[in-house]
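Comment thread on ticket #2218

A.B. wrote:
> Attaching the input chain for the structure job we discussed in standup.
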Amino acid sequence: MTIIKIEKEWNNAHASLEGVDYTLPGWAELPEEFTETWEASGPFVEITADEDGNITGMTPAEEILPEEPEPEPEQEPTDTEVLNALLGVTE
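C.D. wrote:
> Ran it. Output below, let me know if you need it in another format.
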C-alpha cells in the first residue's frame, strides 16, 4: 500500500511511502479512488481528510518553487579605478 503524509511540505508536496504495510501518525493510506489523481499529479495535490485522518478528497495542485534570488548589483568602480582606467594604468 501507499501512505501519504497529510500535511504538505513548504513546496506544496506531500511525502509518500510505497509498498509499506503500516501507517504512521499524520499519514494515511492512499484510497484506490484517488490513485489516478496521485499518479497524474505526483506529490503536488490538495488533500482533505476526516477527523480520523482518512483521505476523503484529493485534487491536483501546483508546485511552489523557491523565488529566484535577485542578482547582486554590479559594484560601481571606485574613483581610483576610474582614474587608472582613463590614464591606462594597470596594477
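A.B. wrote:
> Thanks. Noting for the ticket: The mean pLDDT is 91.
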